[in-house]
User: Fold these one by one.
Assistant:
Number 1:
Amino acid sequence: MFAVELGDDGALLGPLEPWRAEEFLAHIERGREHIGRYIGLPDLVTDLESGRAFLRSYADKAAADTGRLYGIWLDGLLVGGVLFRTMDVPRGIAEAGCWLEPAAVGRGLITRAVRVIIDWAVEERGIHRVEWWAAADNTASVAVARRLGMTREGVLREHYPHRGRRLDMEIWSVLAPEWRAAR
């Protein structure tokens, strides 16, 4: 397995593959309530088989070049992840996303990890536009978009049904020329 160091704090970024389903489920259990405040991942991953199925779906996306999934490890413990939920290489568009368990919040892990995957998408895969969708109330996710130099494009009002309510979704993006200029 490859791993990319995310700084001098021991954080690593690497592929999150189906063989890690037990580790993934344990991570989701540690952060279930926190992670589920704005995204449906904990509602999808409820047991070992559903965890394995989720990871397998991203292995299939990677094989089809339509998505990617990476874990973030801190001191050998899986604490979060980043992904390209969608990737349309012919059109040059990808949507990045993330999640993190509470013990790892506030360390800049998501921002550092997303920088790595955006660099890869822009430079290696020729992605022109990277999108970031965040619940408007998710101030941490919105802050990541700002730190990444993304532009807020608008709000889709009551767009995302989540746990009995409809969330407003902010759409942010960065274009490849902007990304390169900011580095």
Number 2:
Amino acid sequence: MSVRVVVADDHPVVRDGLSALLGTRAGIEVVGCASGGREAVRLAVTLRPDVLVLDVQMPDLHGVAAAREIARDAPGVAVLMLTMFDDDDSVFAAMRAGARGYLLKGASQDEIARAIHAVAAGEAIFGPGVARRLLEQLAGPGAAAVPFPDLTPRERDVLELLTTGMPTADIGRRLGLAAKTVTNHLSSVFAKLQVPGRAEAVERARRAGMGPAREPDR
């Protein structure tokens, strides 16, 4: 039987190209495509594919958050992350969210096809570079827990500065980023923390131990 696949990517060229390539592979049937995170969750629930190939950076719902919802609402669907992001935070956040595999977009057609069959069969699979770093993490001393592990390092930097009361423009100058980029990072932070805005994000961050130390009460 063919492995039924949904492809979710916000870039039409990548999404359409990958769908077309997978459609030529024996044993794989592309049954749907999604351009956003929420659409990916909807197709996972309604179509119940064997595998959902999902990018990390998605509009309207971050790929990690989408993977978490799929694991909850359609646990029989295996999520395979296929992304440009190879930082440790993204990899571990995806695994914690329930993804069964993590490949980079430089992977070959054969590697992607093998990964799809592997996760459909219940295996966990990672690209060579990702697998090496995972092994290094497991072999090394235990890392101290960090607050909000779903955040990327840059998003955590932005949140840390936000807790100081620094406005968007000043955060951008401190980090060498355009104000628009900072705003985009903040939107992603709010979505991942599931808060409506700055005040709530700062409150959550401070409760988690982020931000400047407070003066003791006298």
Number 3:
Amino acid sequence: MAETIHLTPAQALSRLVPHILEMESAADGRRIAIGLAGGPGSGKSTLAVELVAMLNAVKPGSAAYVPMDGFHMRHAKIEAMGQTDYKGAPHTFEGAAFVTFLNRLKHANDAVSGPGYSRKIEDVVDDAFTVVPDVKVLVVEGNYLLLTEGPWAGVKALLNYAVFIHVPRDTVRDRLMKRHGEEGLFSAERNKAHIERNDLPNYDLVEASRDRADVIFDMVVDR
């Protein structure tokens, strides 16, 4: 069973940074991957970006943010599959491509660009980030890093350290309603239906994978 620790996002960062720096030093120049997993709306992307910034403040250019969300299937492909109501579920990602990309990043000696995802347009953005050769720490963030189904099963072996971010289900519901509303792409009724039908079941699926992490952060957060 993974250890569960109750702490705030600031405390989580204070705990992670020295641990990762120690891991980097022990890697003797090899690139390491730190996974931040958790359900939608758990705050993991914000934490990942802040973690990269803090690592780079200590060692400039040593860390890079690698989001799983760039491996959403193209929206047109999801539409053609008739799966727009389930966009964001594991089967609407290019999971095998993500595993291949992460494996390439772990061993690359050249600059490698990767895709991102824009909530403004609800689609993938090519070449959203570039990992340069000097980077030694990959901060990998996404919902499905610890799943055992399908291509996702290949992710865990590529992570040198895996953190699971837990926040309460009701908090996630509130955050997702706010997030979808801020983008203004759909009605409040549609957003609520999508969250109940798709996002919260995805949250439940991801929560079932939490014990595969090296540590679980039970976050003390505001709603």
